[in-house]
């Protein structure tokens, strides 16, 4: 797989400063400032399906703290991490998956391999060189968290629960700005807010270990193949190594999301695409392993990232908002229950083989 950085003619990722919505500036910012931010956010998401967000309230120190905890977790010996193992199969999507256990596919990969009759075996030939740890709300009635014993990493659980709550709050601010930008009021606004359930989001900790140049030269490896997320929105923090690439839906080029202090990358996911009848398009994105020739002798450094997946309740039926259905753009999607959609997509997209 080759790394394709931003090339001439490719779009730039817009940066949206959400600070007029933040608690500290809410009283001093004006309605028209907030409206402008909302409209800019909507325009940017309509154009590409992803933006960078600043002014969201998480300070640089707070972001570094989240990345530090992630590193501390993955620095533990494998036998300790395996005390909170992800169960076999895609559900519940909780706990620790060691390197190569989880395999992410795109729908295109699946479609192109279906004819072979053995989709999983064929696609698993190239393993994903990453490890992950999945966390949900402590109030999720469907998927329970799988924690390490407290003695192994004291205060990890407490910290991660607080991070989940913090990111859930920030996602409400994003949705507020989006409602304003789309001009949604009353029931329509309520319907958008239902795409975010405090108890069904997911916090994911990711470690892409360093890879030597020799290993890249000799083996076929992936980090995270191209895929779309199946919730509503994803807010992703990454370390200074960068590596996340998102596809411009028009030019089909992948754009490198340069890491920037204090920003997160926000991408549209499948439920928001269906809700808006395709006005927002779910962003195809990946973390690739570069061409061996472009990798320095020192190899590819380790990388850490922390995505937060904003999602509705599992039993929520996601329907397109009537105002997005017109004669020129008739309804494209049937209403779908979120867990039913997820069970189809996650069967292939997040296949965990931790047995
Ligand atoms: O690590 C990254 O930058 C991407 C993570 C991601 O896309 C995912 O976990 O769905
Ligand atoms: Fe993703």
TL;DR?
This protein is of the alpha+beta class and 355 residues long.
Topology, pairings included?
Elements: E1 15-17, H1 31-47, E2 50-54, H2 60-75, H3 78-81, E3 95-97, E4 102-103, H4 107-114, H5 119-123, E5 131-135, H6 156-182, H7 186-193, E6 202-208, H8 213-218, E7 224-227, E8 233-238, E9 244-247, E10 254-256, E11 264-268, H9 270-275, E12 285-287, E13 303-310, E14 317-318, E15 336-337, H10 338-349, E16 351-352
Helix pairs in contact: 1-6
The structure holds 2-oxoglutaric acid and fe (ii) ion.
Fe (ii) ion binds next to loops.
Task: Outline the structure in words.
With 355 residues, this protein is of the alpha+beta class. The chain has a single domain, classed as Jelly Rolls (Sandwich). 31% of the residues lie in helices and 18% in strands. The chain contains 10 helices and 16 strands. The strands form 4 sheets. Strands 1-2-11-8-13-6-5-3 form an 8-stranded mixed beta sheet. The protein has a 4-stranded antiparallel beta sheet with strand order 7-12-9-10, with no helix packed on it. A hairpin with a 6-residue loop joins strand 9 and strand 10. Helix 1 crosses helix 6. It is globular, with a radius of gyration of 20 Å. The two termini are 28 Å apart. The structure holds 2-oxoglutaric acid and fe (ii) ion.
State Rg. Answer: 20 Å
How would you describe the shape? Answer: globular
**Percent of residues in helices:** 25-40%
CATH topology: Jelly Rolls
CATH superfamily: B-lactam Antibiotic, Isopenicillin N Synthase, Chain
- Highest-level CATH class: Mainly Beta
Main pleated-sheet profile = 8 strands, mixed
**Ions and ligands:** 2-oxoglutaric acid, fe (ii) ion
Strand order of the largest sheet: 1-2-11-8-13-6-5-3
**Category from helices, strands and their pairing:** alpha+beta
Looking at the overall shape, the CATH architecture is Sandwich
Number of helices: 10
Distance between the termini: 28 Å
**Secondary structure: number of strands:** 16
| β-sheet strand percentage | 15-25%
Number of domains: 1
What low-confidence regions span 5 or more consecutive residues with pLDDT below 50? Answer: 1-9
How are helices and strands ordered from N to C? EHEHHEEHHEHHEHEEEEEHEEEEHE
Protein name: Fe2OG dioxygenase domain-containing protein
Family: Belongs to the iron/ascorbate-dependent oxidoreductase family.
InterPro entries: DIOX_N, IPNS-like_FE2OG_OXY, IPNS-like_sf, Iron_ascorbate_oxido_reductase, Oxoglu/Fe-dep_dioxygenase_dom
Domain Fe2OG dioxygenase: 199-312
């Amino acid at each position: 797989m080759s790394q394709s950085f931003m090339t001439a003619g490719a779009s730039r990722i817009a940066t949206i400063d959400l600070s007029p919505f933040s608690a500290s500036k809410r009283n001093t910012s004006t309605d028209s400032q907030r409206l402008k931010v909302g409209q800019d956010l909507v325009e940017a998401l309509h154009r590409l399906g992803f933006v960078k967000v600043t002014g969201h309230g998480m300070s640089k120190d707070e972001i570094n703290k989240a990345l530090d905890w992630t590193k501390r977790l993955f620095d533990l010996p494998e036998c300790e991490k395996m005390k909170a193992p992800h169960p076999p199969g895609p559900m519940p999507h909780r706990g620790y998956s060691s390197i190569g256990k989880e395999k992410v596919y795109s729908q295109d990969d699946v479609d192109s391999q279906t004819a072979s009759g053995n989709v999983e075996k064929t696609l698993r030939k190239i393993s994903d060189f990453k490890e992950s740890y999945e966390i949900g709300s402590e109030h999720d009635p469907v998927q329970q968290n799988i924690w390490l014993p407290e003695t192994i990493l004291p205060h990890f659980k407490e910290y991660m629960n607080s991070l989940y709550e913090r990111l859930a709050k920030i996602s409400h601010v994003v949705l507020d700005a989006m409602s304003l930008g789309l001009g949604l009021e009353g029931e329509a606004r309520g319907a958008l807010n239902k795409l975010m359930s405090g108890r069904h989001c997911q916090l994911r900790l990711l470690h892409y270990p360093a890879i030597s140049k020799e290993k890249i030269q000799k083996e076929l490896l992936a980090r995270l193949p191209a895929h779309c997320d199946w919730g509503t929105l994803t807010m992703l923090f990454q370390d200074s190594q960068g590596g996340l690439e998102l596809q411009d839906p028009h030019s089909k080029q992948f754009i490198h999301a340069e890491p920037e202090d204090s920003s997160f990358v926000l991408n549209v996911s499948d439920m928001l695409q269906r809700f808006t009848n395709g006005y927002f398009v779910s962003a195809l994105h990946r973390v690739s392993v570069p061409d061996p020739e472009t990798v320095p002798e020192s190899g590819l450094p380790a990388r850490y990232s922390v995505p937060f997946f904003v999602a509705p309740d599992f039993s929520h039926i996601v329907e397109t908002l009537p105002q997005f259905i017109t004669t020129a753009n008739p309804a494209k999607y049937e209403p779908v229950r979120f867990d039913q959609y997820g069970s189809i997509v996650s069967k292939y997209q997040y296949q965990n083989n931790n047995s």
